Amino acid sequence: MQVNVSIIIAVFNGEKYLPECLDSIIKQKYHNFETIIIDGGSTDQTVSIIKDYSNRLLIQWISEKDNGIYDAWNKAISMSQGTWLTFVGCDDVMFEDWLQIMLRSTDANPTLNFVSAITTMVSNDLKPIRNWGSRWNLSKMNRYMNVAHVGAFHHRTLFDRFGTFNISYKKVADYEFLLRIGNSISASFVNEVIGLMRHGGASDTVDALKEALIVKKKVAKINNLLALLQYCWAVMAFYKRKVMNR
Fold first, then answer.
1. Which of 13, 71, 124, 147 has minimal Cβ neighbours within 10 Å of its Cβ?
2. Which UniProt keywords apply (predicted)?
């Protein structure tokens, strides 16, 4: 049977939360999927955990040094067999009906090539902080990443046609990719929470905002003054959230 969904996970020294992530994938109500794990040469028990879960999940995996999360994702894309590709953090927890809910949208409209939903940002002990994710809107995307990328579905033809993630960006290559292909996206939005994303990842930093500023100018072609104003607003909002979440 042709694999329908490829779940892609990049990990490096992720022994603390990876089992929780993989347990949530095992519990999925929909079963025609593969899991591809790209480990960046971990020195903890990550590889042992992957080997253990390989007895319970259809897993393809490699462990070798890479050039960051987007390099790992690109490797996984080349290994994948699914019609739909989705990217999950090694510390994310996906709800058991996640795949089922997303595929309900793709089945209802065969012309779609991108489906996103809502994720709840949580603390390390899974206390809710805020929900994230709204309907695809290129005008909004030119200003900020308004879609939740965790668990979103990408039709593999997007990568066949436009290439993969630009690894010169270490924090926001997913944002750059979506902007780059924005005019060709046929999107649907699932107005439901599909999983939990732990707060404090690589994209939740001031460095990520600086990279996003570069992307906006290069890809979205936003003029320098407007891009700088958006950057200043984003930095202020970032520090406001930090204060409120203490």
1. 124
2. Transferase
Q: DSSP string of 9-63?
A: EEESS-TTTHHHHHHHHHT-S---EEEEEEE---SSSHHHHHHHHTTTS-EEEEE
To which residue do tokens 């630009």 refer? Answer: 166
Structure tokens at 207: 């460095």
What are the residue ranges of helices labelled H in the chain? 18-26, 46-53, 69-79, 98-108, 138-141, 156-162, 173-180, 206-218, 224-244
Q: Name the DSSP letter for residue 158.
A: H
Rounded Cα distance, 74 and 174, in Å: 11
State whether residue 92 is helix, strand or coil.
coil
Architecture of the domain spanning 5-199: Alpha-Beta Complex (3.90)
Residue numbers of the chain with a pLDDT score lower than 50: none
Whole-structure pTM value: 0.91
For 1-47, the pLDDT digits (tens) are 799 999 999 999 999 999 999 999 999 999 999 999 999 999 999 99
Task: List beta partners, residue 85.
Answer: 6, 154
For the chain, the structural domain boundaries read 5-199
How many Å separate Cα 35 from the centre of its chain? 14
Integer Cα distance of 38 and 74 in angstroms: 10
